[in-house]
Specification:
This protein has 292 residues and is an alpha+beta fold. Helices cover 35% and strands 29% of the residues. Strands 1, 2, 8, 9, 10 and 11 form a six-stranded antiparallel β-sheet that branches. Strands 7-6-3-4-5-12 form a six-stranded mixed β-sheet, with helices on one face. The chain has a two-stranded antiparallel ribbon with strand order 13-14. The chain binds zinc ion (ZN).
Length: 292
């Protein structure tokens, strides 16, 4: 059995290639606790969640990475997020019948967006590519080729209990025939890894099985956990954007306003006094922090 809810980086000592392995267990099951998904979408969401951790850890940033698929297929939206502290959450939305379809049929014609939000007015980096091929890994490889211009490969495996992934990336500064040969070499070996091996074996066993001839440096694994970033303050901000008239109408119809977080199912409840107080003028200026 693999190390549960861990991310591990590794480096080839003599080749210009680095890699990462991730396993989501409890973190993945907590995402599934918050939504009942058709099997094909469940698989894709697990893959996306594992991929979001792999992608986030290839970047140096402080904030939240969002992987989003949006298209005109039955699954019109999928969101997987991973923070720079390896905290994940995710969801997918669909309509109608969802069969046992691959990515292109599920998502339809659409796009894959990778965004990085560093918060509080920080920079947002976004890469957008069309959804290509019939797997998420393929679309992500297109993203790395077109938007990041660093050759990168991903292997993803997602089941009901766990979601796992491996990423290999050629070091950006490596050029020339020798680097190209090394990159071909590690990909050919990694392509022999089965989904069962990726999901079932410990990191050391996976790497020994694939790269026994190469010297690898394994770094200590770090924990990955489910955490939702929703909060009272964020919900209040959203309600304020709806506007006073809209909220007054909801209060008139229902007596209160209920907002349920779609990522974690947490319920935020606002009675008439709560909603009215959203629009009370607060003193602003130095000393008053309006961000929650
Ligand atoms: Zn939440």
């Amino acid at each position: 059995m693999h190390d549960a809810d861990r991310l591990r980086k590794f480096l080839f000592e003599h080749l210009p290639v680095r890699g990462e392995l991730v396993h989501l267990d409890q973190a993945w099951r907590q995402v599934l606790d918050n939504g009942e998904y058709p099997p094909a979408i469940r698989v894709l969401l697990g893959e996306a969640l594992a991929a979001s951790v792999l992608l986030a850890s290839t970047l140096k940033f402080d904030g939240l990475l969002t992987l989003q698929l949006a298209g005109d297929g039955p699954m019109h939206l999928l969101v997987a997020q991973c923070s720079s502290d390896q905290e994940v959450r995710g969801l997918a939305k669909w309509r109608g019948e969802v069969g046992d379809a691959g990515l292109e049929t599920l998502a339809g014609s659409g796009r894959l967006t990778i965004g990085v939000d560093t918060g509080k007015g920080g920079e947002r980096y976004q890469g957008i590519v069309p959804i290509t091929g019939n797997s998420l890994a393929e679309s992500l490889e297109t993203y790395f080729r077109q938007s990041v211009q660093v050759p990168t490969r991903l292997w993803l495996e997602s089941g009901r209990q766990a979601a796992s992934g491996m990423l290999l990336q050629r070091l950006p500064e490596a050029y020339g025939d020798e680097a190209e040969l090394a990159w071909e070499h590690v990909q050919a070996l990694a392509d022999t890894l089965s989904g069962d091996e990726l999901a079932g074996l410990q990191d050391e066993a996976i790497l020994r099985r694939l790269f026994s001839e190469d010297d690898l440096r394994l770094f200590d694994s770090i924990p990955v956990a489910f955490r939702c970033s929703c909060s009272q303050g964020r919900v209040e901000t959203t309600l304020k954007m709806l506007g006073r008239d809209e909220l007054d109408q909801l209060i008139a119809e229902q007596g209160r306003v209920d907002v349920r977080c779609e990522f974690c199912n947490r319920l935020y409840r606002f009675d008439p006094v709560d909603t009215a107080s959203l629009f009370v003028e607060m003193p602003t200026g130095p000393g008053y922090d309006t961000l929650h």
